[in-house]
């Protein structure tokens, strides 16, 4: 199974954004159906949130680094494969 196929099982996809690989997820429990995008940035990950149609919010939907506790939470639930960390090649 390819990374893209595996990621699709989690409601995600890989995208090219400004020449960078980005993981995009839609949380099935989010009534607004916002799109969460993640990308690698030095020793951490960055996230931005887009509207359900993929357009930025009026505040610009800037990339924000994950807080240390958010990154630690992702690393703690890694298991054998993680839908955000592994497609981006992030080992922590």
- Biggest sheet strand order reads 1-2-3-4-5
Enumerate how many helices there are, as a single number: 2
Radius of gyration: 13 Å
Q: Helicity, in percent?
A: 10-25%
Chain-averaged pLDDT: 90
| Low-confidence region ranges | none
| Biggest sheet record | 5 strands, antiparallel
Structural class: alpha+beta
Distance between the ends? 24 Å
How many strand units?
A: 5
Number of domains: 1
Q: Which geometry do the CA atoms define? A: globular
Description:
The chain is an alpha+beta fold and 92 residues long. The protein has one domain (3-76). It is 16% helix and 32% strand. It has 2 helices and 5 strands, in the order αβββββα. The model has no long low-confidence stretch (mean pLDDT 90).
């Amino acid at each position: 199974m390819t990374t893209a196929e595996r990621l699709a099982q989690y409601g995600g996809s890989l995208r090219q954004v400004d020449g960078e690989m980005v993981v995009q997820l839609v949380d099935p429990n989010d009534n607004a159906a916002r799109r969460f995008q993640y990308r690698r940035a030095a020793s951490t990950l960055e996230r931005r949130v887009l509207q359900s149609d993929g357009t930025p919010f009026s505040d610009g939907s800037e990339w924000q680094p994950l807080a240390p506790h958010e990154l630690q939470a992702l690393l703690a639930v890694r298991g054998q494969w993680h839908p955000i960390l592994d497609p981006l090649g992030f080992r922590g």
